[in-house]
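quick one before i forget lol
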Amino acid sequence: MAACSALAALAAACLLAAGVQPSKYSREANEGLADAGARRRESGEFRVVKLNQVWEKAQRLHLSAVKLAELHSDLKIQEKDELSWKKLKAEGLDEDGEKEAKLRRNLNVIMTKYGMNGKKDSQLVDTNYIKDGTESDTLDDPRLEKLWSKAKSSGKFSAEELDKLWREFKHHKDKIHEYNILLETVSRTEDIHKNVINPSEENLVKEEILHNKHRELKEKLRSINQGFERLRKVSHQGYDTTSEFEEPRVIDLWDMARSANFTEKELESFREELKHFEAKIEKHHHYQKQLEISHEKLKHIEGTGDKDHLNRNKEKYAMLEEKTKELGYKVKKHLQDLSSRISQGLPHNEL
């Protein structure tokens, strides 16, 4: 065994010396990715205890492979923000508790999004547009349902365009959902604030926080209204072949950027970055589809009793799962950074 290990190490050294590296798509790289995922699962998926609890709860729910990977990406973003906040708190830089409150709101959004907030009406079914097509999910809004029904029956869209349009509808539904959660949070904060008898300096700080929340609500509502108008236009007229972007999140960012105080040169730079971001999203969609196909294949093979075939497919599934999680995190982190830069008027990566 030791001799085999030594030979393997020597072979790897020779490859490196010759300037040859294994492809990132090679069996070795994929197995390494899957092994890393297995080690992480054994030691705890996240560094924050409550996020591990959320993840463990999600494992027990009937979520699809893609939704689990999406949840993992959301929790990785939350983990990064939680650890940053702990450092700020240790330095005494969150005296009013607003950053902590925002973390709670964000986690509440995640829990609600994936049906883990204890409310029956928000429970998600084990479906998604990739595996089950567009018939298996609802939009929870009569106006959206009506638009979608008209678009499907219009004959103006190919199957690929309908898939793309469905992503836009789902993205719009998610925006409305997040707006409603924020609205509920602000309303609760206002009720608490109104019941305070003696105004103080602390309450003045909370008033400023509430003012910022109302501004955030106003921006989200404006984005929702703009998004609905776009869906209405596309549903009636079909897709414009000359349109700048196709991905809903990128379209939102581009609209935001054009409304910001950027020069033409800065906008052009931002446009190029958004094109790269859209390509990254498409790559993520590709892996999501492959993961779902692999999941279905794995379920089929489990019933055949072919252990060798099953093990090979388990390896492939684990690799696709890790790659989908990794890309999902990168997409969401990039989206977060782009949104922040636009709101701060930074067209280049200056954060």
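fyi The longest helix spans residues 264-302.
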